[in-house]
Structure formats: C-alpha cells, structure tokens
Write a structure and sequence with these properties.
Elements lengths: L1 E9 L8 E3 L1 E5 L2 E2 L5 E5 L17 E4 L3 E5 L6 E4 L8 E5 L2 E7 L2 H11 L3 E6 L9 H11 L4 H5 L10 E5 H13 L14 E4 L9 E5 L3 E10 L18 H7 L1 E2 L2 E13 L3 E3 L3 E6 L2
Parallel strand pairs: 12-13
Antiparallel strand pairs: 1-2, 1-13, 1-19, 3-4, 3-18, 5-11, 6-7, 7-8, 9-10, 10-11, 12-17, 14-15, 14-19, 15-17, 16-17
Helix pairs in contact: 4-5
Length: about 290
C-alpha cells in the first residue's frame, strides 16, 4: 500500500513550537535539529507544556548559523549553532538518562522571564548516549524479520521516546468527527507534534503498521504513541481546553493507553533527506 508524505515538522526545542519544512535532512537520530534542545528547571527536570503550556508560544527559527527565538512580549534572541565544548550535564527524559550542555546565562534569563520559573536551556551533548529501547527493537525484529543493525546503533536526542513521530491525516479527520459530536471544534494536526504526516492509510490503520519503506529509506514502527494531555493546548494561545482529549479518551483508549500516532526509527537508509510528496510503501500486519 502506497502512502504519501503530507507534512514534515521539526521541534528544535522540546515542547516549544515547531518548524514546518518542505524537505529535511534525516539520519537515524531523526529529522535534523529535532528536539536538539531542552529547557530544564533548576532541579534539572525537563520543562514541558504539561506544566508550562506557554511554551507552545515560543517560536524557534533556524538560519544557517543560529537558532532564533521569538515569544510574545520578549525581545528576539539568537543562539549560535556552533557546538560548544562544555561539561556534560545529566538529563532525564522519562526513564532514559542522557546528557546535555548549558547554553549560558543570557538565554536562561530569557526563558526564565517568559515562563516565570528559573530554568536553563541545554543542548544535546556531542558525547550523549541514548539508544533505542532494546525490547521494542527485539519485538519488531521478531514480527518482521528485518535487519536491525541500524536500530541497534541508533542514538537520539530529547524526543520523548523515539526519533520520529508519525501521524495519519485520515485519523485526524476521524478524530475530529468525534470532537464535533461532543460539541467541540475541529483541531489541527499541530496539536500532535508529528515529525511526519502521511496520507494514504485509512483512519487508524497506522495501528497495524510494521514498516514504511522506499528504495532508500526504511522506517520501523516500534511503538504506538500513548498520549498525555498536551494535545489540549491551543497552539496559537497557549490556553488549555478539553479537546481533543475527551474525544481521544472516548474513542482511542487501547491497551497501551490513549493512542494517536506511532513512534518510528530508521532501520535502513541510503538517502540523506525526506520531502513532502515522497511516496513510501506501508507494510501492515493485517
């Protein structure tokens, strides 16, 4: 079954706004620049929209040399993309332990002022080690028989659990019907912070996805994506509502949790990039 890439997005700073792209460089770490930075509290815990929904109003933009930041009421700020030689600082993303380095006092003050909490901005350390979940890789290999050498050596940055999040446009259409039945207004795909959005599958057919392949790229579906309340944050205002969480809870409560989207990793790669309009073949378990 053929699917088409409809949208590509990177989220340079974990939990801040995304950047839509027509084409992106890609490695086993994910789309280039995705979740390269994380904001942490004084205690070293990651800041996310779960506690600070205003983070969605922070707009990153990438140039050839800098990461540019903008937010309501704040002066623009920019950070060099050059990698600094800095001490490793521990970072915990859910159950994973990795490391970053501090981007300095000036940008820490910028984030602290906007969020109203003392915090620091960390970039993934060049020597950071964060492999894929070995059990997920083993289960996928047993299901598919595909080679896992690339999966076994994959390291990635500050995404929640896997290098890529994929969502299906037809699933959003179906979900929005449930939202409207409950008296809500349709929501956009930006609520779900997907790196790759596809068309060509039926609604929720991604639940049965094993792999997406082309002659140059191969994605392994390692885990369905269990959702927290973050999709209830309105991206344009930072306000928290009831939808689409209510609709998800009533229609998508599966054994793994409340599911929308799937978590991918590359198991083969010959091409350096991925682009909108690209076709991939879906390998399904049904």
């Amino acid at each position: 079954m053929q699917v088409v890439v409809q949208a590509l997005n990177v989220y340079p700073i974990k939990s801040c706004a995304g950047v839509a792209l027509s084409e992106s460089l890609i490695t086993e770490r994910g789309l280039k620049w995705d979740r390269e930075w994380v904001v942490v509290t004084r205690e070293g815990q990651p800041c996310t929209q779960r506690e600070w929904p205003r983070m969605v109003l922070i707009q990153p933009r990438l140039s050839d040399t800098h990461l540019h930041l903008a937010a309501p009421g704040m002066a623009p700020f920019r950070i060099s993309l050059d990698v600094a030689i800095s001490p490793k600082l521990p970072v915990q993303i859910w159950q994973d332990h990795t490391s970053g380095y501090d981007e300095g006092d000036a940008v820490a003050a910028w984030f602290s002022e906007f969020l109203g909490v003392s915090c620091r901005l960390l970039r993934v350390h060049p020597e950071a080690q964060r492999p894929l979940d070995a059990n997920a890789v083993t289960r996928w290999a047993e299901q598919t028989g595909h080679d896992t050498q690339l999966l076994q050596r994959t390291q990635f940055a500050f995404a929640d659990g896997f290098p890529f999040l994929l969502c299906n446009q037809a699933s959003l259409t179906e979900l929005n019907l449930a939202v409207q039945r409950q008296g809500g207004k349709p929501v956009g795909m930006n609520r779900f912070r997907a790196n790759i959005v596809i068309s060509g599958l039926e609604a929720y057919e991604e639940d049965y996805l094993l792999a997406l392949n082309s002659s140059e790229l191969g994605f392994a579906n390692l885990k369905n994506c269990a959702r927290c309340p973050m999709p209830n944050v309105e991206p344009l205002t930072g306000l928290v509502g009831a939808q689409p969480g209510l609709a998800l809870n009533s229609t998508r409560h599966l054994s793994e949790g409340v599911i929308f989207g799937v978590n991918l990793a590359l198991y083969q790669q010959q091409a350096p990039s991925i682009k909108i309009g690209q076709e991939l073949t879906a390998e399904l378990s049904i």
